[in-house]
Amino acid sequence: MSLIGRQITELIKDNISYQDTTITTQIKFNKDFIGFVGHFPNNPILPGVVIIHVMIKMYEQYKNQKFILSKINQAKFIVPVAADTMITFFIKSDIEKDGIKLQGKVLKAEKIISKISLVLQNKG
Fold first, then answer.
1. Long-range contacts, 41-47 (Cβ 8 Å, 24+)
2. Which of 27, 35, 10, 40 is nearest to 84 (CA)?
3. Residues 6-53: pLDDT tens digits?
4. Fewer CB within 10 Å: N-end or C-end of the chain?
5. Is the pLDDT of residue 73 over 70?
6. Burial grade of 2 (CB within 10 A; 0-12, 13-18, 19 or more)
């Protein structure tokens, strides 16, 4: 597993909840998080790919198995996320003919800052 994957797993492992069909976690990425390296010096902004990675890791933890991202249907990053900002992830999943569809939204202080729709495939 990559360093970024390990750090994300550590951030969510004890801070994830499951209710009905919704998976939720809250994360605060501190300024030392590896995802901020180079994005951007003196003004760390969380890359959108990290938000996608968190969603996949949340689903993997929920199912206790690994998945592969096969498609990004939508990726809207409305508001940038700075270091030390608490954000909340909500995802729902559905099994469709082309794979497992994850619908997610990310909130900062109850305001939607990102909307993501992904399709995953079983790994292996």
1. 43/82, 44/82, 44/83, 45/80, 45/81, 45/82, 46/80, 46/81, 46/82, 46/83
2. 27
3. 999 999 999 999 998 899 999 999 999 999 988 888 889 999 999 999
4. C
5. yes
6. exposed
- Enumerate the β-bridge partners of residue 89: 25, 106
Task: Give the DSSP letter string of 56-107.
Answer: HHHHHHHHTS-EEEEEEEEEEE-S--BTT-EEEEEEEEEEETTEEEEEEEEE
| Structure-block tokens of residue 33 | 């998080």
What length is written for the chain? Answer: 124
CATH tag for 3-122 (out of 3.20.20.30, 1.10.443.10, 2.40.160.60, 3.10.129.10): 3.10.129.10
Domain residue spans of the chain: 3-122
Strand order in the sheet with 22-28: 16-19, 22-28, 86-96, 99-108, 111-122, 67-77
> Residue 38's pLDDT is what?
84
Query: What pTM value is reported for the model?
Result: 0.94
